[in-house]
Amino acid sequence: GGVASSSEGAEVTRRETGLRSRLTSYGDDEFSLFLRKAFIKGAGYSDDALDRPIIGIIDTSSGFNPCHGNVPALVKAVERGVQLSGALPIPFPTISLHESFAHPTSMYLRNLMSIDTEEMIKAQPMDGVVLIGGCDKTVPAQLMGAISANIPCISLVTGPMLTGSHQGRRVGACTDCRSYWKDYRAGLIDIEEIWRVNDELVPTVGTCGVMGTASTMACLVEALGLMPLGSATPPATSAARIRVAENTGKLAVKISVENEARKCITPQDVLTRESFTNAIVVLHALGGSTNAVVHLLAIAGRVPNLNPPLTLDDIDSIGRKTPLLVDLKPSGSGYMEDFHRAGGVPALLQQLAPLSILHLEALTITGRTLGDELANFAGKFDYPQEIIRTPSSPLFPASALVVLRGNLAPDGCVLKQSAVGNPALLKHSGPAVVFTSAADMAERLDSPELASKLTADSVLVLQGIGPVGHPGMPEAGMIPIPKALAKQGVTDMLRISDGRMSGTAGGAVILHVAPEAAVGGPLALVQDGDIIGVDVDERKIWVGMVGGDAEIERRKVKWDDEQRKRIKPRVRGYEGLYKSTVLQADQGADFDWLRANDSE
Ligand code: FES
Ligand code: MG
């Protein structure tokens, strides 16, 4: 007796089976189930297969996405896990985003991917879903969509790539991409060498091999409780990664089928203030990517009734209590394969647990608490290793990431102080050198006219690369050191923008200034020669103009006036939607209409 032969209609069928996949949305439920079954049988399924719970598997493989190059193997292993648990796996595609192949920037498309994910989960009959992704924007986009769809889901990441080797040195994407390029710009290495290293920087499929955004987000999903402990770090090419996939398939069935002993578990069941606190602790302890700040705010914005809502101040206040323990690039020296061998996130949580900053009582997707899950790893990491430090000998004492505020950034901005090259810049003031756009910067950065004006004390300001400005808030915030200064041996300068930087980058780079220049934030008003000051201990950032506050006010009136006079042509398509509804960085740069309704 197939489900479609139920004479009582779909709602009854759903009540009988407890399965969301039997829900229909048309008047004649019985006929629509009959029709659906007829069509899927075109793929060769039997009634025995089709009468089981259905687990969707999101396949984000693409020829343009080497970070997801192992997805076909992972889909197969998830399918095996689902089948071993008696359910039917059905893979389906969504769009795929790779950092280097998403013009103008992958961030511009993150919200689109979240919409694709949410709507395809909602549209298709499935009882639970496995989200396979890895590259920077994928994991947050999938979580945002799946939280809003709110059916049982588990993240499965593709895992980090291995390291390559150049002249006997380990290299990996993409902190080393940047350091070799910096050396090339400074004239320290030649064109032949820069091309030789190019072959080695990305030696396998998988996500960037340092603590960049992809690795950070993978680890945060473990901390959030939406992926089993130990699932973030196995390399993309390892047998362990395949076993994680099989296990994910099994768990997906378990959480998606309701019975007397067990209710289904959805992401909104798991995500609370406490789980976000755990994720933020792990973010600081990893020395993780600044991009994770934007993504966490966007993810939290999808959870209804998060009380109080997550803000930038939570990022800063939790950071003050959290030491940086994981010695990976760009804050430290190791690679993801080292972190995995040292025990990964569970080993890190073991170090953090005695500090009483984690909420071990937080529920996870397994139905057990984070503390219960962590207990499974007791004694497993009692071997010498140097990658995960103890709280008594941290890599950085606290506040790897800080949030600064002041008249230049009333709604905040972010700095990864653990990756600052020259600590003197943490308390610094100097004259602004302003670029009005990424194009302006590219054109003038190395020009002789600019070289004559610059010193190592100058503060480089880049306007117009925020969510609305560019659009999509590109990773252009790490303004290169101007060649003239680089050749004099200057390796770090204070740099400020409303954009982002890659999680694999470092330097005294202040990011995510809100409100951004394109919507008239104070950043838009800064001109060459204004004095910009930063005091990280005080969490302050300010701009001083000759003429003081009155001058700021005068420039603002002028800016508003020019805006009013400017003819704004209709912008069609996704770009129009993006520019008119994207929120500022301090709200995660989600679309305003995608955030959760409270009291949902
Ligand atoms: Fe995909 Fe770095 S480019 S994770
Ligand atoms: Mg990146």
Mean pLDDT: 94
Q: Helical content, roughly?
A: 25-40%
Low-pLDDT sequence parts: 1-12
Helix count from the secondary structure assignment: 22
* Morphology call: globular
Can you list the strand order of the major beta sheet? 7-8-12-11-10-9-13-14
Described by strand count, sense and barrel closure, the largest sheet is: 8 strands, mixed
The distinct ligands, each listed once, are: FE2/S2 (inorganic) cluster, magnesium ion
Strand residues, percent: 5-15%
Family: Belongs to the IlvD/Edd family.
Protein name: Dehydratase family protein 2
Keywords: Iron, Iron-sulfur, Lyase, Metal-binding
Pfam families: ILV_EDD_C, ILVD_EDD_N
Q: In brief, what are we looking at here?
A:
This protein is an alpha/beta fold and 600 residues long.
Short key terms for the protein model shown above:
disordered N terminus; single chain; alpha/beta; 600 residues; 37% helix; binds FE2/S2 (inorganic) cluster; 14 strands; four-stranded parallel beta sheet; binds magnesium ion
Walk me through what this model shows:
Belongs to the IlvD/Edd family. Residues 52-372 form the Dihydroxy-acid/6-phosphogluconate dehydratase N-terminal domain. It holds the Pfam family ILVD_EDD_N. InterPro entries: Dihydro-acid_dehy_C, DiOHA_6PGluconate_deHydtase_CS, ILV_EDD_C, ILV_EDD_N, IlvD/EDD_N, Sugar_Degrad_Dehydratases. By secondary structure, the protein is an alpha/beta fold. It contains 22 helices and 14 strands. It has helices at 10-17, 29-41, 47-50, 71-84, 106-123, 138-149, 175-185, 191-198, 213-224, 239-256, 267-270, 273-286, 291-301, 312-320, 336-341, 344-352, 370-375, 438-444, 448-453, 483-487, 548-565, 573-581, and strands spanning 54-59, 88-93, 128-133, 153-157, 164-166, 169-171, 401-406, 409-416, 427-435, 459-462, 495-497, 509-511, 531-535, 540-544. The strands form 3 sheets. It has an 8-stranded mixed β-sheet with strand order 7-8-12-11-10-9-13-14. The chain is globular and about 75 Å long. The chain starts with 9 loop residues before the first helix and ends in a 19-residue tail after the last helix. The model is unreliable at 1-12 (pLDDT under 50). The protein binds FE2/S2 (inorganic) cluster (FES) and magnesium ion (MG). Residues 67, 98-99, 135-136, 173, 207-208, 212, 214 line the site of FE2/S2 (inorganic) cluster.
